[in-house]
Design goal:
This is ABC transporter permease. The chain has two domains: 222 residues, no CATH class; 251 residues. The chain contains 23 helices and no strands. The longest helix is centred in the last third of the chain and has 35 residues. It is globular and about 70 Å long.
């Protein structure tokens, strides 16, 4: 039988299942660079302010660590590529990782792939369909970004290079996710491995871009290749060969590994557990800890590294704004204070909150995966109650996100305090700024729980809720969106500590709304059918 037979049918099925999530991230990621390009002339209206920006960015390792190399900041296109290429590529990579895993390893984990394989589908059909959907989505994002940049008046060559870098980054990490899906047995482990590779590549790019002596490290990172294309700065088209060749190699490895295992199994199978369960597994909370501990430990380590990294570069971030008062005012408005460093720390705390919201959604989705894998029903056939089981998972969603904020805030405050010799003052301030994000995170977790309780089939839309809140909070102030749009994101209402004054009203309102959504979700779960 043709090993690719039925591919088109599975592509249609995947597109139907992702008809909400994929278009949202394509549009959100694709239009942001063009929407921001128009603000360049407002922030840097003359040659003097642009020259000051260039001098500040080129000579500041902290800025290079965050945004990448500044090749040409004298034009709107060069500024847009420098400001967004790394982070846009990062978001596309994450989206492609989750998409490929969702339609390969997760399908095998739930048993759906075995049913499909019993019909007229080839051995390579599922993997091919997943890669096609992921790569087409990445390509659509790149095309949208290209068309949007050309539409706002930027040069066509630079716009094409920018969009090409986005698409090729997505293709590379689609290949990485395809490989990890063959290596391990569970979708969460496959996502974790691919995300860990993404984190390593981000660190390689950051270190290579900020340290001239070891600048070659950035050439080892697919995230660095999108910047090395040099959009709007005398494009280097030959760099595109690096991600293209890497994609072909990764796809080849994935297709080579696939027939070496059976459906539902992996190259490295999970170790069989002991014949007798440990005493800690005799309660729903103990079982939840066993299921969540790997994910939580990985996130804690990531927040510790990110907190230390961002805290270490805080004292040098003032050079980012150059001599433009407009940029200085915009940056301070994002942080809510007059001091640039305090505004930066406030923005970092806000970013910690947004990333922790992703963890909260991921932890909540574990409940749905346990249900669809038919592991929940046998538990409920015992003395375990529904609310008891759901509460054990929510403990990791709600308290785990609090732990992430505490680790990230403490690490950032500690490293920043060490650099300015004020650890005693900076650690509590940054810890408080990070923990202030909790009500917004809990609200997103509550909305996710509400979907699980009332509309479990649409619980994957939790990613759309989190993505929308993150996009508005992250790019809304820079794009000067109307306040009514900014208010959609719960992170907009969080006080911008450590520089702003703590106001209790928005915190209490967000906490109250989060509590209502959590209770409503639990009530719905208590009454609905399982499965």
């Amino acid at each position: 039988m043709n090993p690719f037979v039925g591919t088109w049918h599975l592509v249609r099925l995947a597109l139907r299942r992702d008809r909400i999530v994929v278009p949202i991230w394509i549009v959100l990621i694709g239009v942001v660079p063009a929407a921001s390009a128009g603000t360049y002339d407002q922030f840097y209206p003359d040659a003097a302010s642009r020259a000051s920006l260039t001098a500040s960015a080129v000579g500041n390792p902290s800025v290079a660590l965050l945004y990448g190399p500044a090749f040409d900041l004298s034009t709107a296109g060069g500024f847009t590529a420098w400001r967004f290429s790394t982070f846009i590529a990062l978001f596309v990579a994450l989206a492609c990782i989750f998409t490929v895993t969702r339609h390969t390893r997760q399908e095998e984990e739930t048993g759906r792939q075995e049913l499909l394989s019993s019909g007229v589908t080839g051995r390579y059909t599922a993997l091919t369909a997943a890669l096609l959907v992921s790569c087409l989505a990445a390509l659509a994002t790149g095309l949208l970004a290209t068309v949007a940049l050309i539409g706002v008046g930027l040069p066509a060559a630079g716009s094409v290079a920018f969009g090409l870098g986005i698409a090729l980054t997505g293709w590379v990490f689609s290949g990485i996710s395809a490989v990890t899906a063959q290596l391990v047995e569970y979708s969460r482990t496959a996502n974790g491995l691919a995300s860990a590779v993404l984190g390593v590549t981000f660190l390689l790019r950051g270190v290579g871009d900020s340290a001239k002596d070891i600048s070659w490290l950035s050439w080892l990172s697919p995230l660095g290749w999108s910047a090395q294309l040099r959009p709007f700065a005398h494009e280097r088209w030959w760099v595109a060969l690096l991600p293209l060749v890497t994609t072909v190699v990764l796809f080849g490895v994935a297709y080579w590994l696939l027939p070496k295992r059976d459906v539902g199994l992996s190259i490295y199978p999970s170790r069989p557990g002991p014949a007798v369960a440990a005493p800690g597994l005799r309660s729903p909370l103990g079982l939840a800890w066993r299921l969540h501990r790997g994910l939580l430990i990985g996130w804690v380590a990531g927040f510790a590294v990110a907190g230390a990294l961002f805290g270490a570069l805080a004292s040098g971030i003032g050079g980012l704004v150059g001599g433009s008062e407009q940029v200085r005012e915009a940056f301070e408005r994002m942080g809510g204070a007059s001091a640039i460093v305090d505004a930066y720390l406030a923005a970092i705390a806000n970013i910690f909150g947004m990333i922790a919201a992703v963890y909260a959604v991921q932890a909540n989705l574990r409940m749905r995966s346990e249900e669809t894998a038919v592991r929940l029903e046998p538990l409920l056939a015992t003395h375990v109650r529904r609310l008891q089981w759901a509460g054990s998972h929510l403990a990791f969603s709600l308290l785990g996100s609090a732990l992430l904020l505490a680790v990230g805030g403490t690490a950032a405050g500690l490293l920043h305090g060490l650099r300015i010799s004020d650890v005693r003052g900076e650690v509590p301030a940054m810890l408080g700024a990070s923990m202030a994000q909790l009500p917004a995170i809990w609200l997103i977790a509550g909305l996710s729980m509400l979907l699980f309780g009332l509309l479990p089939k649409y619980m994957s839309a939790s990613w759309s809720i989190a993505s929308l809140a993150l996009a508005i909070a992250l790019y809304g102030p820079v794009l000067r969106l109307p306040q009514a749009v900014l208010d959609i994101s719960p992170f907009t209402h969080i006080p911008k500590l450590p520089s702003a004054t703590l106001t209790a009203a928005p915190v209490l309102w967000l906490t109250g709304i989060a509590l209502v959504t959590l209770v409503a979700g639990l009530a719905g779960f208590r009454r609905r059918d399982i499965g």
